[in-house]
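About this split. The held-out portion is used to measure sequence recovery: a designer receives only the structure tokens and must propose an amino acid at every position. Recovery is the fraction of positions where the proposal matches the reference. Here is one held-out target exactly as it appears in the evaluation file.
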């Protein structure tokens, strides 16, 4: 992760610590000082404002959390902004709520996951979407033997996560793919949609 993403994660982590009533973690992670009941009231109001971000941009949230003392701008962020100004100028306009969706996904707070995050876990229902969209490490069609073996292993991991129902989707499969699917999953389990 680059220093901008790390800073955005720190912001969202601090908001989450407070919302989840992990106050000790919040105090350790922030520069926010609580010396009175009024400070606690102001903090609650500020966290409420940050939780309901609406259309506020990433830049607005970075500035607000700095102003509030919830996540101060640091030298690493300043260096990122100066060294990667073009990139920052594009990212800062994105709604912070879009970053929060990414955060929730990466931290496992959504019902969705990638094949790399599911090893060892099980789900009642699993949908595997196979895509040969130019991946170098995984490919069913145009691949060396080592890539095919790696692809089969990751497919195995995905398919064995299902406790009840497994659906595997392959867009516009060739006859070869359909034959292999019938071999692996039995003909009565193959359908065209």
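Reference sequence for scoring:
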């Amino acid at each position: 992760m680059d220093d901008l993403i790390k800073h955005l994660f720190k912001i969202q982590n601090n908001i989450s610590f407070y919302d989840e009533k992990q106050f000790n973690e919040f105090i350790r992670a922030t520069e926010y000082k609580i010396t009175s009941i009024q400070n606690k009231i102001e903090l609650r109001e500020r966290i409420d404002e940050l939780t309901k971000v609406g259309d506020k941009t990433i830049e607005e949230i970075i500035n607000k959390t700095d102003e509030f003392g919830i996540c101060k701008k640091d030298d690493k962020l300043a260096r990122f902004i100066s060294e990667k100004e073009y990139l920052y100028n594009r990212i800062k306009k994105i709604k912070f709520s879009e970053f929060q969706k990414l955060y929730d996904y990466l931290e496992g707070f959504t019902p969705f996951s990638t094949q790399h995050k599911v090893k060892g876990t099980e789900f009642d229902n699993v949908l595997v979407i196979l895509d040969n969209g130019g991946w170098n490490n995984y490919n069913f069609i145009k691949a060396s033997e080592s890539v095919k073996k790696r692809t089969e292993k990751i497919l195995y991991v995905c398919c064995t996560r299902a406790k009840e129902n497994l659906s595997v989707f392959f867009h516009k499969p060739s006859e070869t793919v359909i034959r292999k699917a019938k071999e692996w999953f039995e003909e009565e389990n193959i359908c065209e949609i």
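Annotator remark: Residues 3-106 form one domain.
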